[in-house]
Amino acid sequence: MTDTVVVRSVRTAADLKKFISFPYRLHRGDPHWVPALRMDVRKLLSREKNPFFEHAEAEYFLAQRGREVVGRIAAIHNRAHNEFHEDTVGFYGFFDSIEDQSVADALFKAASTWLKPRGLTVMRGPASFSTNDECGVLVDGFDTPPAILTAYTPPYYVQLTEGAGFTKARDLWMYQSVDDQLPERLTRGAKLIAERKKIELRALDMKRFDEEVELIKQLYNQAWERNWGFVPMTEAEIDHLAKDLRPVIVPDLVVFAEQKGKLIGFAVALPDLNVALKTNPSGRLFPGLIKILWKARKINRVRVLLLGVLEEYRRAGVDALMYHWIWEKGYAKGYRWAEAGWILEDNAAMKNGLLRMGFAHYKTLRLYDRPL
Question: Same domain for 259 and 216?
Fold first, then answer.
């Protein structure tokens, strides 16, 4: 086999199939890697079906030695990010490579070559496709599998990335619950906050699902707008995400906080479907669906995917109220472990709040930058 690494754009249906298939072969022996359903990956990559492409472009690349695929990457121009932050950042995502620096270097070079003529000055990643999706290289916490919609990468990706000249942009911290009940003082405090501030909590009403999604749209971009790396989601993107998540939503794990009828915060926790997906290493719907559905009945883990509060209410204990709700309702339904995050490494308020609520930092994901 030739040692020459050739990187080329994905152009045909056969190329796209190779792009999707590669990580299933590469990571098959990794006990912590979780295979997504291939049909979901295909939909995510589709320029016709994913509303991300209403404000972005991307090019997919394959690296080969001879006929063997040895790596893949996507170069991403997210115009919405650059308009919002008034910067010139290009992104890379869907990076997978064998443990070979020459392969990684060739992939990063291909992505850079595509991004630079678009007037971009920095390449950041991995983000597949943005910080609203799976993002980051795992740099700490390799001993446990990822929760739903969380990135997982093997340890050698750190060396491949830094060996290609990337430096840390920002770390994203993940937290896990360390007790099966909230501290008693927080339980009492949550009830007092609700009474004094006249804050009411309620679960998602699945019979009014579309209306509930409209409420989330009103709050989502306001609640995160000051966060580093945040990219506002369009209405179409929120609708798309809601449609994808609807089959796995447990209504009691989605909570709305209201004061005098005004929505001031919401939180979304999801059963950790990765527990079930892990039983289907091929990622194919058939016959994997039967295994997934059977295992899904016994999931006892949740991930707090989103928690947002309007800025003027952030020091009023609303986040603690919603965590208390999810903890109490989740425990009653048999969930015994929770993950929260990601949280920016310099978000002291959120980090301290999670520690007080019985969570501990247990994983770190890192976004990297390299000048173009």
Answer: yes
